[in-house]
Each structure stands twice: as structure tokens, then as C-alpha cells.
Amino acid sequence: KATIARIAAGEVIERPASVVKELLENSLDAEAKRVDIVIREGGIGYIEVSDDGCGITSSEVLLAFERHATSKLSSFEDIYAIASLGFRGEALPSIAAVADLEMLTAVRTEESGTYLSLSGGEMLKHTRMARAAGTSIRLSRLFSRVPARLKFLKTPQHEASKVTEVVVSYALAYPEVKFSLNVDGRNTLNTPGNGKLRDAVLEVYGSDAASKMLDLENDTYRSSAINISGLVSPPEVSRSNRNSLHFFVNRRLIQSRALQRAVEQAYSGLLTAGRYPMGVINIRLSGALVDVNIHPTKAEVKFSDESAVFTSVQRAVRSVLVEKPP
Ligand code: ADP
Ligand code: MG
């Protein structure tokens, strides 16, 4: 299938953070209300992602490790239009191929769950085991069979910070989900999961930032095809790096230098040199406005009408930065 070939071509599990991203997305697709993440040695030594989502039935659990057997989506074209984050049924098999993996999963309707253990993609154990509804996946010895990948990784601290970035991003995009992150035995993140973005921001950036963040929710844009919502920092709450602006398109985490620049421009004259805004910017638009000719795992996105999207984002940000008459 051309669709699948196209997707498979660019598929890569680059580093621990990409593994965590895939596992988190699966938990969110399973409608988890709570996701707990544990990593050690930057994720190279150990990664665990545990959720209270729907779980996998005993009859389907093996399919999850078969390439393309479970794709939640049939056409490449609608990835930005659909509700699920997964779309190609490739993450789990790819991850299983480069690590030692254990999975314990259970659904509400079955008496017991399933435990699997695989090494380098080969099944070692497959038994029934009790668990509350949900899924836990544990990985160790990531890339131990792929020395070229291992060599490409940076220090455990650097890899841990990449993992943290991914978890923080999703915690901000899904404030209704309770996220926890434990790094080398330390709890570094614990969001309330109460659905309030500002409370998630409080956990991530602290009370000062959270209380001062400006609300992007703006009626003017709600009627148009492009809807912008989220929070951005006022000029007095800035950062010394560019990592604190998080963009999501239809709840999918994206990377966009152009959007970053569009937002920075909205602050021009308000921030001193070397200071950058922080914020969470949720862009909702119809799938038709997204150019799909960019591989989705790359997190890069192209809009069919870039200037319309940038202008909307910039206007939304600028309008909350401008002093409003009392
Ligand atoms: P997809 O592109 O469908 O997300 P993955 O390889 O990431 O493919 O996952 C394979 C399948 O395994 C999913 O389609 C889903 O049915 C199941 N699965 C994986 N992780 C979970 C989870 N945490 N909870 C429930 N089901 C899961
Ligand atoms: Mg997936």
C-alpha cells in the first residue's frame, strides 16, 4: 500500500523522547485519565509508561506488535482531521524491536489481563495476569542492539530533558489528564488533571507564571475557520530560551519555527534581547488546511494557507498583549 510505504519510509524511533512520545500518544488514544511515566538514565536504562485507559483485549494484544495490523486510520490524508494520535500501527513493533519490553494490559470486560515480555521483538512470555483496566509498558536496554543509535544519543541528562519536554508538552495540551513524571527516582512533574490549563501551567512553570499568564480565548477568532486558544506570558514573565512555547494543531504536538517567529514578533518591542515568551497555543483548524506532505512523526507541519494561520496566531497573541481600556 502506497500510504503505508510512504509512512514506513520516514518512521524512526530516534531517542528515548520519541519512545515516550509514542507511548504517551497511545495512552491518550486509549482515553487514559492518568498517565504515569518513569525513566532512568535518560530513558536509555529504563522507561515505564502506565495508564488507566481502555487496555487491550486478550485477543488483540498480539496484533499490537504486528506492523500495520492495528492502524487506527486508513488514509494518510486525514491525520490532522481525526481524533486519535496514532495512525499507522507502527510504533509498538518499532519500539519492541529495539528494546526489551514488558507489557501488562487489561480491559474492564475481561476477568484477567495479559502479560507479555519481548526481547528484540521476540516473544519470551505470554500469560494471563491481573491488572485494573489500563496498560503498563516497561522498556529496558533501549537501543542495546542498535549501537549506531546508541552512539547518536547525548548524555542521560540531555535525553532526560528531551523526555521532560515531551511530557510537559502533553501535560499542557491535555490538562484533563493527570500526568506524573519520575526521573531517576525523583518526582519532577505532577499535574492535577482537572481540565484547567492554568493549573497545569502552575505545576510546570510555577505560581508566579501561572497567575500572570494571559488567556488567548478570544471570541473574534472563534467564528473563523481557525481557532486559537491557550495561554501566553505577559512581557514581564519571559524566559532565556525558546523551549517554552508549545504549539498544538488539532491537539497534536507540532514544531514550527515560523509560528515561533510569528509569536516572537507579536512581542517585538516588549521583551529585551535574549528573552523569549512562554505559552501554550492550541490551533484548531479543519484538516484541509494542513499540508500532509510532511512526515507526521517529524512533528513539522505545513499549512496550506500559512499566512492565514500565522496571522491568526499573531493577532490572537498581540490582542492580549495590548493594554485594554478599563
Ligand atoms: P497506532 O498507530 O495504532 O497507535 P501503535 O503501534 O502505537 O499503533 O499501537 C498499536 C496498537 O496497540 C494501538 O492501535 C492500540 O490498539 C494498542 N495500544 C497500544 N498502546 C495502548 C495503550 N496504552 N492502551 C490501549 N491500547 C494500546
Ligand atoms: Mg500509537
UniProtKB/TrEMBL annotation:
One of its GO terms (biological process) is mismatch repair. GO terms for molecular function: ATP binding; ATP hydrolysis activity; ATP-dependent DNA damage sensor activity; mismatched DNA binding. GO terms for cellular component: mismatch repair complex. Keywords: DNA damage, DNA repair. Residues 201-322 form the DNA mismatch repair protein S5 domain. Transmembrane segments: none annotated. Belongs to the DNA mismatch repair MutL/HexB family. This protein is involved in the repair of mismatches in DNA. It is required for dam-dependent methyl-directed DNA mismatch repair. May act as a 'molecular matchmaker', a protein that promotes the formation of a stable complex between two or more DNA-binding proteins in an ATP-dependent manner without itself being part of a final effector complex. This is DNA mismatch repair protein MutL. The lineage of its organism: Bacteria, Bacillati, Chloroflexota, Dehalococcoidia, Dehalococcoidales. The gene is mutL. The chain holds residues 8 to 333 of 566 of the full protein.
